[in-house]
Amino acid sequence: MPSQNATDFSQLSADIKQWGLALGFDHIGITDTELKTAEANHQAWINNGYHGEMDYMVKHGVKRTQPAELVPNTISVISARLDYLPTQASDSENILNDSSKAFISRYALGRDYHKVMRKKLQQLSEKIKNTLEPELGFNFRVFTDSAPVMEVALAEKAGLGWRGKHSLLINKNRGSWFFLGEIYTNLPLVHDLKSNEVLPNHCGTCTTCIDVCPTKAIVAPYQVDARRCISYLTIELKGSIPLEFRPLIGNRVYGCDDCQLFCPWNKFAKLTQIDDFNVKHGLDNVSLLDCFSWTEAEFKQKMAGSSIYRIGYEQWLRNIAIGLGNAKTTPEVIQALQRPQTSELLQEHVAWALSQHVEPNS
Questions:
Q1: Overall domain count for the chain
Q2: Could you read off the pLDDT of 190-223 as tens digits, one per residue?
Q3: 206 lies in a domain?
Q4: Which of 167, 185, 203 is the last residue of a domain?
């Protein structure tokens, strides 16, 4: 390919999709970088304070909503979908209904998706680079939930699905149990949809995700107040979890899947073909007491390579303590919670948990 003018970008765009599927991606779409509507919606979300303590949602300014400001000369975005629903995982509802168990969001049962997705995106980018002549000047940068990128908005524009009322992307044929990743590039690729076009929204009058949210974090269709969301409370929030939410968290110790678990479109979800996303260390069916008994060394050993590792040992125990506070009262639970804690954060949450097992006026 001696020059950009001689390059068949229509064929290259088709090839990129085939190469992506060969690498294990489940869907590849291509879009432009126009995000004015998403920018306005994002700013309104910030103005409402719905981002909570996630300051990174604010500090990058227009880099989040104007891709060329983040990566100069970006004119096309390759959006990739990778299904993650693990095979042979214990039934989620059964775990949620057993107060002695620790429920961990299904996406975190295996290897850290950042590493898996990023590697595949890099491989796809290198495939593109090796196919083109050097003088074409192909520039790229890969992302997966790792930088100021409007992943859902870009995926929607790329034809991968529509934004559901829970704010996650839904694919008509695969539901929503998937990760998203992007490649920003300066190539004039063929885009799947016109600039202001999106796929039809098939949520209709359904409000299941809103109705089942334990903490009522979906404050209106397509609007999530992160400050109420269990995923935010157990992962992003580093300090004390507000008292009003502790009983509502139940046994959800890392993330929450309820809005996806009960979404009608997820009856079409497929199990992952990626071994890295399958269950590690029995995390799909583990007791709260076992988790609470881990030493810091055991936590680091078991969670090495997992997305759970990044919250750290103290935050992990904080979350488990809340789960134990919501568990059925047993001598074993009381005994575990009575063990001394050196951290003030843990002391506070353990004290709350113990208070849940004391009869009024006793």
A1: 2
A2: 999 988 888 999 999 999 999 999 999 999 999 9
A3: no
A4: 185
Distant-in-sequence, close-in-space partners of 65: CB < 8 Å, separation ≥ 6: 35, 38, 39, 42, 150
Which domain CATH number covers 79?
Answer: 3.40.109
- Residues marked as catalytic: 145
pTM of the model: 0.94
178 and 247 in a common domain = no
Residue 142 maps to a domain: yes
Same domain, 121 and 67: yes
Cβ atoms of 168 and 177 within 8 Å: the answer is: no
* 167 vs 284: CA distance, rounded Å: 25
